[in-house]
Amino acid sequence: MSDKKGTVLFYPYIPKKSLKILENRLSTRWIGQGPMVDKFEKKFSQIFLNGKECVSTGSGTDALHLAYILAGIKKNDEVIAPVFTCTATNIPLLYIGAKIKFVDVDPNTMNICINDLRKKISKKTKAIVCVHYGGIPCDMSEIKKIAKKYNVKVIEDAAQALGGKYKNQNIGTISDFTIFSFQAIKHITTGDGGMLCIKDPKLIEKAKRIRWFGIDRRKKQLGIWKNDIKEVGFKYQLTDLGASIGYQSLIDFKKIISHRLKIYNIYLKNLSQNPNITCIHDFDKNKNCAAWLFTILLKRKDFLQKKLRQKNIETNQVHFRNDKYSIFKKFVKNQKFKNMDKIENRYLVLPIHTKVSEKDAKYICDLINKFI
After folding, report:
1. Which CATH number fits domain 254-371: 3.10.100.10, 3.10.25.10, 3.90.1150.10, 3.60.15.10?
2. In sequence order, what are the beta bridge partners of 113?
C-alpha cells in the first residue's frame, strides 16, 4: 500500500447486485414500506435469529426507542446504561423521561463493567441496557444472572455486533430485546435502518403497530381495520428502497464478516506483542467477535494519530463518554467512573472494513510498531 493511496476509517459496503435490485424496485409502485421490507426481515431472521420474526425500523435508534417502550420503561423509571457508547443508546431514554444510571467501562473490552453494574443496580431498576462495543460481546451470562435476581429486562444494543456470538448463541437470540443498526458504516447498510429482535412473540404485532403511527397496516391493507388508534405510534419504518440496498448484503454477509475478522486478527496478532499498546480484546473463548471496530490503548495516542494521518491513514475516537454531555448532566452528579477516566484519552480506532486489504492492515501495523 502506497502512502498516496491512503486508508479511510470507514467505508460502506454496497454490493453491485444491490443496484439492480434497487433499480427494479424503483420501477414498481413500492418504494416506501412494502414487500421488499418483508423479504429483508425474513432473510435477516433466517440468517441471524433461527427463523424468529423481527421488526425492521428506519434506524437503530428507532429500534431502541421501540425496545424501551415495549420493555415497559416509563417516565422516572431507573434504567442501567453504559457511560461509554454512542449517544443513540441513551438519548431515546430521554424521550421517555427515564432516569439513567450510568455504569463504568470494563477496561479490557470497553463494554459495561459487571462489577460496577452489581454496585449500581437497585430495587428501583427497570431494565439493563448493554452495548457490545466494537463487536465484542458483553458478559451476557453475568448480565442475565443479575437481571434475573432483580427481575428486570435486558436490552442489547448490538448496533456494532451483527454476526457476533456468545456461548455459541447468535447475538439477537439471547435477551428480551436486541437491536441492530444498518447505518451507512455498519457491517451492512440500508442507507440508514435498524432491526428490533424480540424474545416474546406476543409483542411483535404491537411493535409493528407503533412502528407505524399505531396503525395495523396489514388489517388496513386488507380493508378490515376499524380505523381507530389506541397506542401512540411513530414513523419508524424501513423503506423498500433501503431494504433493496441491504438485501444482497445479507446474502454476502459470510464474506463480509470473514474479511473483517481477517483484518481484525492481523491487527491483534501484530499489535498485541507491542509492550506500549493494549488491544481492546479479552480473549474470552465464549465470545465470537463481530469485528466492527479494532481499538487500541496507548499513552501517545495523539502522537500516533498525527503520524498515521501524515501517511494518509485515518484513525479516530469513534464514541465518547456520555457523562460529559450536557443533556445527561443531571444523571451524573457526584458520579465517578474510574476506568473511563483512565482510558478516555488513550483509545484509538483503526480502519477495518471491506476496502482494507490484508496488505493494508499489515502495513498499518508495521507503521504503528515503528512509531510506538
Report:
1. 3.90.1150.10
2. none
pLDDT of residue 312: 97
Beta bridge partner(s), residue 294: 350
- What is the rounded distance in angstroms from the CA atom of residue 232 to the CA atom of residue 230? 7
Reduce the DSSP state of residue 207 to 3 states and report it: helix
Quick check: 1 pLDDT over 70? Answer: no
**pTM beyond 0.70:** yes
The C-alpha cell that represents 222 in the structure block: 386488507
For the record, the C-alpha cell of 130 comes out as: 448493554
Domain ranges of the chain: 16-251, 254-371
What confidence score (pLDDT) does residue 224 get? 83
User: Counting beta carbons within 10 angstroms of the beta carbon of residue 276, is it exposed (0 to 12), middle (13 to 18) or buried (19 or more)?
Assistant: middle
Query: Please, which pLDDT band fits residue 222 given cuts at 50, 70 and 90?
Result: confident
Residue with cell 486478527: 265
Q: Is the dihedral of CA 326, 331, 335, 340 positive or negative?
A: negative
For every residue of 108-176, DSSP letters joined together read TTSSB-HHHHHHH--TTEEEEEEE-GGGPPP-HHHHHHHHHHHT-EEEEE-TT-TT-EETTEETTSSSS
Find the length of the chain. 372
Residue 155 CA neighbour count, 13 Å, CB half: 28
Q: Rounded to an integer, what distance in angstroms lies between the CA atom of residue 153 and that of residue 138?
A: 16
Secondary structure (DSSP) of 123-138: TTEEEEEEE-GGGPPP
Domain at 16-251: CATH code: 3.40.640.10
The confidence score (pLDDT) of residue 3 equals 43
- State residue 217's pLDDT score: 84
pLDDT at 343 over 80: yes
The Cα–Cα gap between 313 and 371 comes to 13
Lookup: cell for 255: 464474506
What is the identity of the amino acid at 234?
Answer: F
Helices (H), the chain: 16-26, 35-48, 60-70, 91-96, 114-120, 140-150, 204-211, 217-222, 240-251, 253-271, 301-310, 338-343, 358-371
pLDDT number for residue 93: 98
Distance CA 369, CA 256 (A): 27
